[in-house]
Amino acid sequence: MSKRLWAAAAVVVAAVALSASAASAAGETVGSCIFDELGEAQFEGIEGDGFTAVKNLKTAYKADVEGAEDLKKDFEKDLEGCLEAPNPIIPEVTEIIWGGAAFIVLLALMKWKLFPVVKNLMEQRTQRIQDAIDDADRQRAEAAEVKANYEAELADAKAEAARIVDEAREQAGAVRADLQARAEADIAEMRERAAADVEASKRQAIADLQSEVSDIALGAAEAVLGRSLEDPEMQRQLVDDYIASVGAGQD
Amino acid sequence: MADRSASYADAVAAVARAEGNLDLVADELFRVARALEGSDELRMTLSDRQIPAARRQQIVEDLLGGHASDTTTAMVSMIVAAGRSSDLAGIAQEAVEINARDRGRSVAEVRSAVALTDDQAERLAAALSAATGHQVDVKVVVDPSIMGGVVATIGDEVIDGSVRHRLSQLRDTF
Fold this sequence. Notes:
The complex is a heterodimer of chains A (about 250) and B (about 170). Chain A is rod-shaped, with a radius of gyration of 73 Å. The longest helix of chain A is centred in the middle third of the chain and has 137 residues, at about 95-230. Chain A has helices spanning about 1-25, 30-40, 50-60, 70-80, 95-230, 230-245. Chain A has a domain at about 1-90. With about 250 residues, chain A is mostly helical. In chain A, helix 1 (about 1-25) packs across helix 5 (about 95-230) and helix 3 packs across helix 4. The model of chain A is unreliable at about 20-25 (pLDDT under 50). By secondary structure, chain B is α+β, with helices and mostly antiparallel strands. Chain B folds into two domains: about 1-100, Peroxidase, domain 1 (Orthogonal Bundle); about 105-175, no CATH class. In chain B, strand 1 (about 105-110), helix 7 and strand 2 form a beta-alpha-beta unit. In chain B, helix 1 (about 1-20) packs across helix 2 (about 20-35), helix 1 (about 1-20) runs antiparallel to helix 5 and helix 4 runs antiparallel to helix 5 (about 70-80).
């Protein structure tokens, strides 16, 4: 890790330095650019070259020569190109050297002091995260176990509830059947008892009626007999009849 | 009870035989028993042990004196004094039967709603003698409860020709 870091830092510094060297070799400063443009200036229809051509173009322009104004504008554009900003990416070589050295020093300091602390913090953070993950896994496992237990208990409770409902239904059916049987038996018994009572009442009424009739008949007979028996002749006749029946061998 | 009544009857019969009037004593004793049977007050008085025996004997002598023989009066007085007045009916019955046996006859207790004439009693005795095959002495008891007719009891045999019996049979047929 450390070796790869140092190698990467060295490659970055070298690449920046090489590109900065190439840019410096091209001599691209604003003054040199303008100087080169002036020294190499040539215009169509204008005599001379370099600074002379520029001086003659100026004269022609002032003289309002045809086409001088266009040439002047083109040359001004060329010069304005020299005024463009330096490369924003590629710095100066010295800056790169000092920056690279400072970067290396800073990197060394960071490697020496900061990285262990950051590494330690990262490891602690990693450990905390791992612990949290482990804890979460454990809690998830526990939750899964609790859920499984709950689902099992729920299933057992549902089965128990179903069994209780079935038993209650069976018991209710048995009780209903028993009550129905008892009610039917009671009704049959009540009917038999009522029929027996009716029959007994009928027999009793007939017996009472017969007794009443016999009492009336006997009462009437006794009344008639009572009046007849008051007659001494009747009593004598009864005794004589008895004697006659005994004498004849009859009762 | 029956043995005791028989013993008393034997004693009465022995005394009466000695006096030579068993037939009379038996008949009077039977009548006294029937009279006692018809009077609850007299029966209770003679049975009441709270009354001194002498007083009860005096009552017997007052009632029977002049109406029954001395032997009969003495026998009844003795039975009452012994506290056996409640057995008097059984004793009289036994005495009558002893008397009848002595004469080779049976006794028929005849209950009638009205008193029988002598003619009826004789004809009834003859009819019962013919029916049973041996001579029968008739002892008549007037019992209005039978309403009419006659009930004759000879030993264990009962010949019931009473109106009450006829009505009972009529009631049973209903």
